[in-house]
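Before the break, one more example. Copy the sequence into your notebook; we will annotate it together after we see the structure.
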Amino acid sequence: MTLWQALLISIIGYFSSIYSPWLIGLLGGWYTTGRPLVSGLIIGLILGDVQQGIIIGAAIQAMYIGLVTPGGSMPADVNFAAWIGIPLAMVSGADASYAVSLSIALSFMGVMMVYATASFNPVFVHKMDKYITDGKLEKAINIPVVGQITNFVCRFIPIFLANYLGAQFVPSLVGLIPEWLGGILTLLGGMLPLVGFAMLMQYVVKKKLDLIYYLIGFVLVAVLNVPIIPVLVFALLFAYMDLKYSQTDFSVLKKTKTEKSESKKKLLSTKDVRKAYWNWMFWNLSVQNFERMEAPAIIRMLGKVKDKLYPGDKEAQKELLARHEPFFNTEPYIGSIVPGIVLGMEEQSAITKEDSADLISGIKTALMGPFAGIGDSLYVGTLIPILLSIALGLSSDSGNVMGPAFYVVSHLAIMLPLTWFLFKSGYSMGMESAQLVLAGGIKDKITQGMNIIGLVVVGAITSMYANVKTGLTFTQGEMVIDLNSTLNGLFPNLLTVLLGLATYYLMAEKKMKIGWLFLVFIAVAVVGYFTKLLAV
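Here is what the structure looks like once it is written out:
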């Protein structure tokens, strides 16, 4: 393989990694050129054997056709499997079965790169927080761009070295990753979401009793195994009961609706809304981190229209970005309706000059979990495998270019119009709902209802996204007691919820800074791994 071939494969391989923004985020990258079937076509073009590239890519694709990565969890990484495995198999003259066997080790190495990237990136996020506090807003909204440094180092360099130096380098590279480092990163990845959840709860919890709703959401998932959509139904029921028995007069809503002005004031043009849409689409998983997940992308999206929302008002712009610092995570494409709603509500808040930060935060929190579940199941878990199955049927044996071509065209033809429709619809709904609630004068009760929904959902996704378990065992004679199994028999995932509440306590009551919390979690992961107090 020539230097230029290795460089080209490495650049496109980096573009196709899960956190790369350059090909419309995951949509054109991870979910399109990142699929081994499509990767095989591109690599075949670069190396001069399209048919063999597609055949090998199809073989690897078949093994990972149902890959879903909910909530940032990473069961396998097809990026290294495709962009290292396929070219090495081709240049060595090996068949597809060799590439498939090689992909297993490469996938493991790729997962380590995912955890390394997301574990280091909070450094950039904390820098973003400081920029916002200091009023350096342009620097803050460019953090998703700067944060690509980590992803570039963890993707481009290994792909280039493996391809340019050849097949002998790959087993050595995999062997260089010590088992203890992989274990510590895995433990850290299971705990760090709790920091983001605690930060979010600071905004949502108004009194100690509200934590009951967090525990209810956790129990529904951890103990009763309730899916996220029924969890939302329960949350809506709790919110409805709270509003119903608060004796709030909602008749003003009907009056407001009938008296709504014919000329609706707007601050954002269609061009501005489209700019916000593209910024969300490209940057939603850039500078991905376990602490805040997609929050930097929301900040970038709003930062690009801040001068339209609050022209010349630097303090208002700072407040706009600062209130979106807490954890946010959803499936970014079916879930694009959520940032659309946020944009619409922020615009209406800027128009009315009402303080609606709690309301917007509550709605954002309440919706992110359900749309994550819908997106992962309908898009990632259903649509993509269906399209890939058809494409594999066209190419797996023959190496026909029609397979990857069908997948690329059909996938983007469906998802690009759909995501714009969802984002724009969310924006329109956000404006109208915010106008109705703010004008009606019942914002506080609506905010309380949304906070209830948000806490139930956060409790639920704590069980789904965080994972803390002990590796301690006690032996008495021939009897071995696994403490983690014993605790789960009493209360499933008990350690996770206890650590989650402790994190909230340190942040909300002890005012511990996020940077210190991050260091505490690193220390806990290191000590936990070597003492077996925590288990991978």
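Residues 3-179 form one domain. Confidence is low (pLDDT under 50) at residues 255-263. Try to locate both features in your own notes.
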